[in-house]
Amino acid sequence: MFCRNCGTEMNDAARFCPKCGYDRMGAMQQNKKVIENNVIRFQLKPTYNYAYKFFSILWNAIVWIFVISIFIRLRLLKLWILFPITFFVTILVLGIYIVIKMAIEKQQYNNLEYNFYTTKVEYVDGFVNKEQKELKYKYVREVTMTQSILERLFSLGTIRIFTNASSGNYGNNSHNNMKGRNGIYIHCVNNVQEQYRIIKQIIDEGSQGD
After folding, report:
1. Is 33 among the domain residues?
2. What pLDDT digit, counting tens, does each position of 33-64 carry?
3. How far apart are CA 15 and CA 43, in angstroms?
4. How far is residue 78's CA from residue 99's CA, in Å, rounded to a whole number?
5. How far from the centroid of its chain's Cα atoms is residue 186's Cα?
6. pLDDT tens-digit readout, 119-158
7. Please, how many CA atoms are within 13 Å of residue 47, restricted to the half-sphere of its CB?
8. Which of 130, 156, 166, 181 is the most exposed place for a label (fewest CB within 10 A)?
9. What is the per-residue pLDDT for 73?
10. Same domain flag for 122 and 172
11. Are residues 124 and 102 located together in one domain of the fold?
12. Distance (Å, rounded) from C-alpha 69 to C-alpha 66?
């Protein structure tokens, strides 16, 4: 056989090239590791739960309506009593907003996936513009699983993967993950405890072997 580095003929049983010292076995192990890291070990696609999203969007919209009304010193209750038509207009606008937002988020969830490899997790979002990012396990500081009251009602949960540079802020309810921070937030996860166990195990193994 011949050395892949310098072309010198070498013994088939030899590990190192007699001329340049090329490590044949080390290169084979490295190639194997590269191949393994291109194979998805676990894929997670968040579930779009219509009922959960409806109540979540509705609650946020109501809060914003009252915040804006307080900010501009508008007494909505008095306005609705004096001019009943304004109440129905408010309900109509609120309904249109919820329908549009749910339709957009549904398309986002259809194209959203998290692929866990041997040493990295890859986030893929193909809605409108293709977005793809990856996070290596060696940079992961902590993996957590949480369930809000609303999530528990619908048997859902959130998995958060923090890096050393992550803010740790739980306030963002975006369906994704890497915007504004270096960690990943995965919302609307079914069977979240089992999914969390699998993800944590893969990350623990990958961070040790990387």
Report:
1. no
2. 554 567 888 999 888 999 999 999 999 888 88
3. 38
4. 27
5. 4
6. 889 888 877 667 788 888 988 989 999 999 999 999 999 9
7. 14
8. 130
9. 66
10. yes
11. no
12. 5
Prediction pTM value: 0.68
Tell me: do 124 and 187 sit in the same domain: yes
Of the candidates 60, 83, 107, which is a domain's last residue? 107
Residue 68, CA distances (Å) to 63, 64, 86, 185 in order: 9, 6, 16, 28
87, 162: one domain? no
Number of domains in the chain: 2
What integer is the mean pLDDT of 187-199? 93
71 is in which domain, residue-wise? 51-107
**Average pLDDT along the chain:** 79
| Pair 202, 121 in one domain | yes
Residue with tokens 């070498």: 10
What is the per-residue pLDDT across 87-114, written as a single tens digit (0 to 9) for each?
899 899 999 999 999 998 898 888 888 9
